[in-house]
């Protein structure tokens, strides 16, 4: 895939962050958007889980076992790939639980949760790291295979609006202005784009770079789906049991997209 195409898809996922922030631009918008965001979180969780296990992990196995002479060598390749996947998962866990305060995707953050501006900026930093790897995931998948890239692109795109909403909400809860809140969504959108461009530029210098980037970014995506979005679905289910069923709709949506792209 060309640099220009990666830039285009990276810009789209970054723009989705800004759209999430715009949902808080006018008073009263939150209550109107809350149910929609809950469904979007659940849909994204199902789609991302399916994309990782059905599309990305098998592609990682192919990359790491291609050309191996025997089963033992292939086993070492799989071990290396899964170690990188685990590393990606644990890295985001580390940042979310040691650097950035806890937050809910697509949920309004109330003043009592984030009071000090420093806490809000710390949360923004954590989200920026998170979104950087979102961009890296999209680019890595596209470099390996256009079909895999499109599926990962959709998976990431689905949770970008709730992510932008969360960033803007955190800033407003710390007493920052609406302009600062929108600026926060621009920052995390830019971080997504930087992640895309980093992989794109690295790939031109190191041919094997994507072999390492894909399993690592897959671990990041798995963390988002399993440790951020699914717990949020469980939280939302207390008020709306139907939300949990939308996770299955996300999986079904993945299979539909998969069949359409295969044609």
Give the overall average pLDDT: 82
Shape: globular
Which percent range describes the beta-strand content? under 5%
Poorly predicted residue ranges: 106-115
Tally of strands: 0
Radius of gyration: 18 Å
Q: How many DSSP H or I helices?
A: 8
Protein structure class: mainly alpha
**Number of domains in the coordinates?**
1
Report the span from N to C terminus: 19 Å
How is this fold's topology laid out?
Layout: H1 3-22, H2 29-65, H3 71-99, H4 117-144, H5 146-173, H6 178-205, H7 209-237, H8 242-262
Explain what this protein looks like in three dimensions:
The protein has 263 residues and is mostly helical. It has one domain. The chain is built from eight helices and no strands. α1 (3-22) runs parallel beside α5, α2 (29-65) runs antiparallel to α7 and α5 (146-173) packs antiparallel against α8 (242-262). Mean pLDDT is 82; it is low at 106-115.
Tags for this model:
0% strand; 8 helices; 84% helix; mainly alpha; 263 residues
Briefly, what is this?
With 263 residues, the chain is mainly alpha-helical. The protein contains eight helices and no strands.
